[in-house]
Write a structure and sequence with these properties.
With 404 residues, this protein is an alpha/beta fold. The protein is built from 15 helices and 13 strands.
Length: 404
């Protein structure tokens, strides 16, 4: 008997009025698995063979799906595998950080086609001009690759540090309050003509892990992002959870034990910003990563001290998110150079025992994710793709308006 292939997919619905949802289910199943036959799709999604055939034909007609050469397995009839057409849709991802802005373009399956970055002025009015020029540049480069790119752009995803909407005293380097007070989304929408969405950088990192990283196909995951600050992207029931104000997972704001006269937030002690401060590094220095690599190679005492303290605090944060969310896995991602990320990951063991120590574990309790400064822009670009094509069960449950 032939071995049954394990397929990652969400369930479809054979009820009337769910064709748009089922179309998204099929697209996601193909994105997660690469190629699937109609029989595979029917078995994985629970849809009837006729429903699958109808949707596949529709997706083929619309240019989203292509049939590959038929494959014969055993004595049965040959089956035709189907795959997504990557160039059928594109999205732009934009990262706005404290000293740099990055923009890239991905296709329907998450391939990065174009990328570019520029130093970012601290003043939002000046910074937006830099950003708009950067977006124009990547669009021009994309048009040289795909002449139909402008018609196939589904949106612009933006990621920047949170938390959002909090009252702070002045524009400090942690909150980027001046940028949050600026009419950013409206300005970008007017300047680009695209639909624009915003998420915090940890959520964007989780979106990248969900698209092409360790969270691909995982139903429940927490992606702990260690950058200038610290955040956690939450994937619950296979979907990114944003919270009421887009601040879900802002674990860097969690207070540690009282020190002296006040409380210290986690990110003030375990983030890359705390390393920069202890090692007297300038985060705006274009040679920052080279200097960090030199410190790692020299086993610099300041870096070693930071590693030990940061690992202890991050162990506490992992215990916290495991206790609250009971994820299948915790994924550690970072904007730091890979060798430093590896050192930090290794220093985080052994982990504090918790309810996560269960016998039926399939995913590793803790695993390394993407260690790439471009991961935030990648996640930002993946967000419009996800919004356009991923299934959303919550949308099926919303009551219909009188005009529907």
């Amino acid at each position: 008997m032939a071995e049954i292939r394990e397929i990652k997919a969400k369930g479809g619905s054979n009820q009337e009025g769910t064709s748009a949802h089922n179309r998204r289910v099929m697209i996601e199943a193909l994105r997660l698995n690469g190629t699937l036959s109609r029989a595979d799709l029917a078995r994985a999604t629970g849809l009837t063979k006729q429903a699958v055939s109808n949707i596949i034909e529709e997706l083929e007609d619309d240019g989203f799906v292509a049939a590959l050469e038929a494959v014969r397995k055993g004595r049965g009839q040959p089956s035709t595998p189907y795959t997504l057409v990557p160039e059928r849709a594109f999205a732009i991802g934009l990262q706005i950080d404290r000293y740099v802005t990055r923009a890239l373009v991905v296709d329907l399956v998450g391939n990065i086609l174009v990328r570019a970055q520029e130093p970012l002025p601290p003043n939002p009015a000046r910074g937006v001009a830099v950003i708009l020029d950067l977006i124009t540049s990547v669009r021009r480069q994309l048009a040289a690759i795909s002449p139909q790119s402008e018609q196939r752009l589904v949106g612009l995803g933006v990621a920047m540090p949170g938390p959002f909407g909090l009252a702070t005293a002045g524009d400090d380097t942690w909150s980027m309050e001046a940028w949050q007070a600026y009419p950013l989304l409206e300005t970008l929408a007017a300047g680009t003509g695209l639909n624009v969405g915003l998420q915090n950088d940890a959520a964007a990192c989780a979106t990248a892990e969900r698209l092409v990283g360790a969270a691909n196909g995982v139903e429940h995951a927490v992606c702990l992002y260690i950058g200038y600050g610290i955040g956690a992207g939450l994937i619950l029931n296979g979907e990114l959870y944003r919270g009421g104000n887009g601040n879900a997972g802002e674990i860097g704001m969690a207070l540690l034990s009282p020190v002296g006269s006040g409380h210290i937030p986690l990110e003030h002690q375990a983030s890359l910003a705390s390393l920069y401060k202890q090692a007297d590094l300038d985060p705006a220095d274009p040679d920052l990563n080279k200097k960090i690599l030199a410190m790692v190679a020299a086993q610099d005492a300041r870096l070693e001290t930071w590693l030990a303290a940061a690992a202890a605090d991050l162990r506490w944060s992992i215990h916290l998110v495991e206790t609250i969310f009971d994820p299948d896995t915790v994924i550690v991602s970072s904007a730091a150079p890979e060798i430093l990320t590896n050192r930090l990951f290794d220093a985080m063991h052994p982990l504090i025992p918790s309810i996560a120590d269960r016998r039926n574990r399939i995913q590793p309790r803790l695993q390394q994710g993407i260690a790439d400064p471009w991961s935030i822009a990648l996640g930002a670009a993946a967000d419009p793709i996800s919004g356009e094509f991923d299934p959303r069960f919550s949308a099926m449950l919303k009551p219909r308006s009188d005009s529907a």
